[in-house]
Amino acid sequence: MLPSWVGVVSAISLAIIALAALVTAGAVTVAALGVRTAVRALKGFAGPAIADVRQLIGSIKTEADALVGASRDVRQRIVRAADAAEDRLTDLDSLAEVMQQELEETAVDAAATMRDVRRGLSVWRWSRKLLKRKKRP
After folding, report:
1. 3-class DSSP assignment, residue 136
2. Is 24 exposed, middle or buried (0-12, 13-18, 19+ CB in 10 A)?
């Protein structure tokens, strides 16, 4: 059997442990309330800053959207201008081809006309020579 003082010491130590657990629970509760109060104070201080940051982000997004729209507009204008320039160059190329064909045909016609004129002149000279020979007798 155990002496009687062991039960008393065990009861006192159990009471001290229980008291320590209660004190710890109270300290944790007070700390949690303190953190809660600190978070509320932080929200109070940071709330306007967060609202300002959100507003700034909204403004940046609006400006970025406007910039993207302007960029898209400029890109479309450049594409249209390039297409128009390509169409004009195609038309100019077609005109150059037609002009070249016409010039070639004109040169061929001019050469043929010159040949005909030379032939005609030679026939005329020949006929003059024949006529002069006939007049002499």
Report:
1. coil
2. exposed
The reported pLDDT for the residue numbered 19 is 93
pTM metric for this prediction = 0.43
User: Under the phi-then-psi rule, with left for phi > 0, alpha for psi from -120 to 50, and beta for the rest, what region is 97?
Assistant: alpha
Give the angle subtended at the CA of 34 by the CAs of 33 and 40, to the nearest 5°: 90
pLDDT of residue 21: 93
Instruction: Say how far apart CA 104 and CA 110 lie, in whole Å.
Output: 10
The CA-based angle 54-57-61, given to 5 degrees, is 140
CA distance 58 to 4: 77
Mean pLDDT by 10 residues, the chain (137 residues): 85 93 92 87 82 91 92 93 93 92 92 89 82 67
Separation CA 43–CA 51 (nearest Å) = 11
What does the alpha-carbon distance between residue 82 and residue 89 come to, in Å, rounded to a whole number? Answer: 10
Q: What is the pLDDT of residue 125?
A: 84
Q: How far apart are CA 63 and CA 60, in angstroms?
A: 5
